[in-house]
Write a structure and sequence with these properties.
The structure holds two protein chains of two kinds.
Chain A lengths: L14 H5 L15 E7 L5 E7 L8 E2 L31 E2 L5 E7 L2 H10 L1 E6 L6 H5 L14 E7 L3 H7 L2 E13 L7 E7 L4 E6 L4 H12 L6 E4 L15 H13 L3 E4 L2 H7 L2 E13 L5 E11 L12 H9 L8 E9 L14 H19 L3 H8 L8 E2 L5 E2 L4 H12 L1 H9 L7 E13 L3 H6 L9 E7 L5 E5 L8 H13 L6 E4 L17 H28 L7 E3 L2 E4 L2 E4 H10 L14 E6 L7 E13 L6 E11 L6 H21 L30 E5 L21 H12 L14 H15 L1
Parallel strand pairs in A: 1-12, 10-11, 14-15, 20-21, 27-28
Antiparallel strand pairs in A: 1-5, 2-4, 2-6, 3-5, 7-15, 8-13, 9-10, 9-12, 13-14, 16-17, 18-26, 19-20, 19-25, 22-23, 23-24, 26-27
Chain B lengths: L6 E4 L3 H8 L6 E4 L5 H6 L7 E4 L4 H4 L1 E4 L2 E5 L4 H5 L10 H6 L5 H6 L2 H7 L6 H7 L3 E5 L5 E4 H4 E3 L2 E2 L6 E8 L6 E7 L9 E8 L4 E7 L6 E2 L1 H9 L5 H10 L6 H20 L1
Parallel strand pairs in B: 1-3, 2-3
Antiparallel strand pairs in B: 4-5, 5-10, 6-7, 6-10, 8-9, 11-12, 12-13, 13-14
Classes of the chains: A alpha+beta, B alpha+beta.
The structure holds flavin-adenine dinucleotide.
């Protein structure tokens, strides 16, 4: 291992600008003559627009759907049989379907002026009964979100398992109902767009905070009626995404339309209130799950019903049915289960659209499955970690194709549980638990495990029916005349540290110092096509592509170097940023000089593509990588106030080869902190009329420094047999088990009452209600 | 999230502030630290025509001792109290309370006068200062007056201030050295507004024993039956506190009934143990 290549904890290069406050976000970019946008948003969850009155004298400054000539509603088709697509208009047409939906757009020289105009617009609504709760919305006779559908079910799926044979052998059938509440995704930077038309380029140039610039380009071109060459999407520094920044936004379309129509740049910077009210939400799953288990706690069969509240509209491009598809495919987790049956429903309601959030469906899945495992453990009277270990796919069985047809590539799942159990020190926790705490709080211990399919390839996405199927990921590598390196990738780095880790991959191949490497990303005009950053795919896919591209450069440099050093190409080694032959060596700058400045010195048989290569890469097989992890936590629950404090938290994870262990740890910390948010704090509740109840941070609680424990980490390393360098995806993983880990720990603490909390966030209110319910039952 | 247009003036002294506030027919507001008014204006929930900054006026930054009272200028910040920049005449209670308000950035600007005038039920000073038996010094077009906090606090976000009035100071009775206090705040995270506050001051020497419940949906609530228990030195368990609240008709939802009782019980235990 070199000290700058794969495996080195190189400090993040990008942090120099971030920590000094010199990042360059959309809001930092100014365009001459720009106008600011503000929106009139629907105050009702479901209604028909009777009339809209624009303030007098506001022509060309206030726009409704009727004004948006040439703008098509956003539609994300899916090939899944029975799927009902929905049209998501940039500005509401006829009907509004959630509080916060964009109805009227106003422009002003400043945002304040635009808001003044918005305040003066009058919209008259005929209120309709809303569909708010997904289970009620699923029933026949519920108010219809989309009138022509006949029901509110965007997609229903069903997989049958051979349950009868396992039921006969099962000693226990344990059923539980779980709910993961709707929440917001909260990146530090909200959504932001600055659109301008550039006549010289015949191009719409859109600076926008996105994780997927190439997909946004495709969507904008389609909905605006442009050719793709006429759209350039630039994602400058992006302050976190987590899934929120993967879809084409109504506000983005309006900004683009205005820039094209009036020839003036248009800016929209989301504020926190519209972010919390009107941006896409996430999570909101409901489960009824049953485990058929033997006397030991071995789960023979698993049955589930999964309902996902997808909100009013399907987002482009990923549609609104990925969550349910992922949930159905992931419920069995890391366990070897004989029989599995699952029904899923994607239900539309009068709430904002749903997009996948870090972990995509699996935090909900793990909340249901991992809490069910503990319920089984309590039923058979065993330690939950033991029940996990006997149910998991053992290392000796790898590679293993599970009941949901996922092929785990490698790893030691029970080993991770054992390690977590040892780190958390079960004996000491049980001993402490048996004593009474001086402050009357109750101690609880919880575990949670998962397997995370990541970097899903072509075949997986194709099976989900979505339009944007990732194929060969490309990377460009270019030696500069002075011997530096430019990498071009179509993914976007917004917290993942890829400006460092991709440079490390190049360093691994070329020996070049990452300091001399520029990673160019987030710009459709400068980078090869990519579906972007999501699904923990970037370091696997773009990392693999960078590696391959650098290998091509090695070959090209060998030919030139051999000529200059007067030896045979196969005698040349490229290492340490130098081209080395038997009799001497050259810095990369010599190769650069000869190719660019003094081509008269090149050999006659030089590869005329020079010292630049764009190379495509895809692992084979392309089913994705399978990282896994077990977390364990100790909590203290105050039975009088319902407050939960996380006292200790350990993570044992295996993401194969770590390109930068420090970055891996950072991703784990951040994900687990967000998982604690889901577990204990974050919720976007709605009242029965569909009004959002958490519209500022006074009501939407996020975990802060005081609520997040000092996570203790251990890394196991089982390289992937299928990917370049054995890298597995890991960016999302640690959000997955956390809600279940905390939930299991809380329920362990409450077991003396026989109380269980089965809904996130595990708020004081819910803890007290669970205790009261159990005491009521006992009485 | 930008405020509607408004005019801004910085008053030279209290008289100037009163004059400015009364100078137009519009909706005019004094500005303290802006930690509550600022967000409300940004959300356009408040759209004043004129904002008059008062927080740095000499009179509002003054801290004096007058007989049995510590007189704290309305412009004194939570941070100044937290840092011990005013005399401790409450046996540490003021510092304790100040340190739990929001987080430091808010405490650096937020003022005690602004907090009392704003009268958010979930805020700390309205409950803590009521337990201490504080009075509000007010100046306005009709001259200066002093009103006990219990008469000043009318309802949530509603106080006995006339349009051009400003709060100039809080008059806080000094505690005797042997006086005890307890303060228990239940909130989701440090720095959040409270879900419940129990505040207890027991000063037998001065004949003052107050038990106050905060973070209800109205003004802070005196709980006389529990004050009686404190005077008698009787331990108050959660169920006792629940019963006392129910007996005075203070009934909330299940969660409220529970946590308000817990906050009171713990505040009382804290006071009796101190
Ligand atoms: C994130 C956050 C968290 C917070 N958490 C807490 C908390 O945990 N506990 C808590 O108690 N508070 C909390 N606060 C509120 C904070 O303490 C405020 O400082 C306080 O409520 C208002 O004080 P201010 O000086 O900022 O008043 P301003 O915001 O300036 O004014 C508030 C109101 O009082 C009026 N006003 C101000 N000064 C005077 C005066 N001298 N005379 C008459 N009227 C006046 C204004 O016109 C306005 O109506 C929080 C605030 C924020 C932003």
């Amino acid at each position: 291992m070199s000290d700058t290549g794969i495996g080195a904890s190189v400090p993040r290069k990008e942090d120099r600008r971030f920590l000094a406050g010199r990042g360059n976000y959309v809001a930092d970019i100014a365009a001459a003559n720009e106008m600011a946008l503000a929106f009139v948003r629907s105050p009702v969850a479901h209604g028909r627009i009777r009339s809209i009155r624009k303030p007098d004298g506001a022509e060309n400054r206030v726009f409704t759907a009727d004004d948006l000539d040439g703008v098509e509603p956003m539609r994300a088709p899916s090939k899944l049989p029975g799927y009902k697509p929905s049209d998501f208009p940039a500005l509401a047409i006829g009907k509004v379907r959630f509080v916060g939906e964009t109805v009227v757009a106003c422009v002003g020289a400043t945002r304040a002026e635009a808001e003044d105009l918005a305040q003066a617009v009058e919209v008259d609504y005929e209120e309709l009964d809303p569909a708010v709760d997904m289970l009620e919305a699923r029933r026949p006779g519920a108010p219809l979100v989309h009138d022509s559908w006949g029901d509110n079910i965007a997609l229903a799926t069903r997989t049958d398992g051979d349950m009868e044979s396992v039921k006969a052998r099962a000693a226990h059938s344990v059923t539980r109902e779980f709910r993961m509440s709707r929440q917001a995704m909260v990146p530090m930077e909200g959504r932001a767009v600055l659109a301008e038309w550039n006549s010289r380029m015949d191009q719409l140039i859109v600076h926008t905070a996105t994780q997927v610039p190439h997909l946004i380009r495709a969507g904008l071109a389609m909905f605006l009626g442009l050719e793709q060459r006429q759209v350039r999407v630039i994602a400058p520094d992006v302050g976190g995404g987590f899934g929120l920044k993967t879809y084409v936004q109504p506000e983005e379309l309006v900004a683009c339309w205005y820039a094209m129509k009036f020839g003036r740049p248009a800016r929209w910077i989301s504020d926190r209130r519209e972010h919390l009210i009107a941006d896409a939400n996430c999570r909101e799953h409901h489960y009824i799950v049953t485990a058929h288990a033997d006397e030991e706690g071995r789960i023979l069969g698993l049955e589930g019903e999964v309902t996902v509240d997808a909100g009013a509209y399907s987002i482009y491009p990923f549609t609104n049915c990925l969550e349910a598809a992922m949930a159905g495919g992931n419920l069995p987790g890391p366990y070897a289960i004989e029989a599995y049956g699952v029904k899923t429903w994607t239900v539309v309601t009068n709430k904002p659209p749903l997009v996948p959030y870090r972990g995509v469906a699996r935090p909900g899945v793990a909340f249901a499955m991992e809490m069910l495992v503990d319920a089984v453990a309590r039923t058979v009277g065993r330690e939950p970690h033991e029940v996990r270990m006997i149910n998991m796919v053992p290392a000796s069985a790898m590679p293993y194709t599970n009941i949901a047809r996922k092929t785990f590539d490698s790893g030691d799942h029970p080993g991770a549980v054992a390690r977590a159990a040892q780190m958390i020190d079960i004996a000491a926790v049980r001993e402490r638990q048996a004593r009474d705490e001086p402050d009357g709080r109750l101690i609880g211990l919880g575990f949670g495990s998962y397997v995370e399919q990541a970097a899903h390839g072509t075949s997986v996405f194709a099976s989900w029916g979505v339009q944007m199927v990732p194929g060969y990921e490309q990377a460009g590598a270019k030696l500069t005349p002075d011997g530096g390196l430019e990498l071009r990738v179509g993914v976007q780095s917004h917290g993942q540290g890829m400006e460092t880790t991709l440079a490390q991959v190049a360093s691994e191949i070329l020996g070049i110092d990452p300091e001399n490497v520029s990673v160019i990303h987030g710009d459709t005009g400068l980078t090869p096509y990519s579906t972007g950053t999501y699904a923990s795919r970037s370091i696997v896919m773009a990392g693999g592509a960078v590696s391959r591209a650098c290998e091509v450069l090695v070959e090209r440099m060998r030919t030139i170097g051999a000529h200059l050093l007067q030896c045979e190409p196969d005698q040349i080694r490229v290492a340490g940023g130098r081209v080395m032959g038997p009799g001497g060596d050259l810095p990369f700058s010599e190769i650069g000089r000869v190719w660019y400045i003094n081509p008269e010195e090149l050999p006659a048989d030089v590869d005329t593509d020079g010292v630049e290569a764009v190379v495509g890469y895809r692992p084979e097989p392309d089913h994705g990588t399978f990282s896994y992890s077990t977390h364990a936590a100790v909590v203290a629950v105050d039975p009088d106030t319902g407050a939960v404090e996380v006292l200790d938290y350990v993570v044992v994870e295996d993401c194969g080869t770590m390109v930068n262990p420090m970055v891996v740890s950072g991703q784990v910390y951040g994900g687990a902190a967000q998982g604690i948010g889901t577990a204990l704090f974050e919720e976007s509740p709605f009242d029965e009329s569909g009004q959002p109840l958490a519209s500022t941070f006074a009501d939407y609680h996020l975990p802060g420094a005081a609520e997040v424990p000092a996570f203790r980490l251990a890394h196991m390393v089982t390289p992937s047999p299928h990917t370049e360098h054995g890298i597995k995806g890991m960016g999302e993983g640690s959000t997955i088990p956390t809600p279940a880990v905390i939930g299991n720990a809380v329920n362990d603490a409450l077991k003396r009452y026989g109380a269980e909390v089965n809904e996130t966030p595990i708020s004081p209110r819910r803890v007290l209600a669970a205790i009261a319910a159990a005491e009521g039952e006992a009485a | 999230m930008k405020p509607a247009k408004f005019d801004y003036a910085r008053a030279g002294d209290v008289a100037d502030a009163i004059r400015l506030l009364g100078s137009t027919d519009g909706f005019n507001k004094p500005l303290g630290g802006g930690m509550s008014l600022g967000p409300m204006m940004n959300l356009r929930l408040a759209q004043p025509d004129l904002v008059v900054e008062v927080r740095k006026l000499d009179a509002l930054k003054a801290v004096t001792e007058e007989g049995g009272y510590l007189v704290v200028g309305a412009g004194i910040t939570h941070a100044e109290i937290e840092d011990g920049k005013i005399p401790d005449t409450a046996n540490g209670m003021m510092r304790f309370v100040a340190g739990q308000i929001a987080y430091r950035a808010v405490r650096n600007r937020g003022t005690v006068g602004g907090s009392i005038a704003h009268a958010d039920p979930a805020a700390d000073w309205p409950t803590a200062l009521r337990a201490l038996g504080a009075e509000v010094a007010i100046d306005g077009p009709d001259g200066a007056r002093v009103v006990p906090l219990s008469e000043f606090q009318l309802a949530a976000f509603t106080v006995a201030l006339e349009p051009a009035d400003i709060v100039t100071a809080l008059r806080i009775p000094k505690l005797s050295p042997g006086a005890k206090w307890g303060y228990y705040k239940i909130c989701r995270k440090p720095g959040e507004f409270a879900d419940s506050i129990g505040a207890v001051v027991h000063d037998p020497e001065r004949g003052r024993t107050n038990v106050v419940l905060g973070a209800t949906d109205g003004a802070p609530l005196d709980v006389p039956a529990l004050a009686e228990a404190v005077r008698a030195g009787t331990a108050v368990e959660i169920d006792d506190a629940k019963a006392a609240l129910a007996a005075q008709g203070a009934v909330f939802d299940d969660y409220g009934n529970q946590i308000h009782a817990v906050a009171l019980s713990r505040a009382i235990k804290g006071a009796l143990a101190s």
